[in-house]
Amino acid sequence: MKYGLNLGCGTRIFTSNEEIRWVNLDIHDGPGVDGVQDWRTIVVDAPPMTGPIVEAECFEFVVAHQTWEHVNCGMQPIRQCYDVLKPGGSLIVSVPDLRKLAGMWLRGELSTQIYLTNVYGPYDGTEPSIH
């Protein structure tokens, strides 16, 4: 069984199957361990599993889809991802390309609604969904 970490999942919950068991993590409003809000300590939707939730070198994949723009993109989050990846594991990161989005909007290739949703995110009324 392979394990994957869906980091900063929000409402994008990855479903586990016979090949990959996904752990979906995100922050919450309260403090984490010792009063520090650390994404590694907050489990949103971990399916029943017999292995580790978040320990060193336990994941084959870490996916951070539209997540990094919500946090300070310094080295600490990258180190934390490295720590939980198995040797040879994959870190998959996607962030908005604001230059490309602006160009497409200015050329009329994107509607204003689609452009603003990409810039500001699909705001659901919660603080973490703000870009």
What features would you describe in this structure?
The protein is of the alpha/beta class and 131 residues long. 21% of the residues lie in helices and 24% in strands. It has a 5-stranded mixed beta sheet with strand order 3-2-1-4-5. Helix 1 links the parallel strand 4 and strand 5 (85-94). It is elongated. Residues 30-52 have low confidence and may be disordered.
Features:
131 residues; alpha/beta; 5 strands; five-stranded mixed sheet
Mean pLDDT: 75
Structural class by secondary-structure content: alpha/beta
- N-to-C series of helices and strands: EEEEHEHH
- Report the sheet with the most strands, covering strand number, pairing sense and barrel closure: 5 strands, mixed
Number of strands: 5
Principal-axis shape equals elongated
Helical residue percent band = 10-25%
Radius of gyration: 16 Å
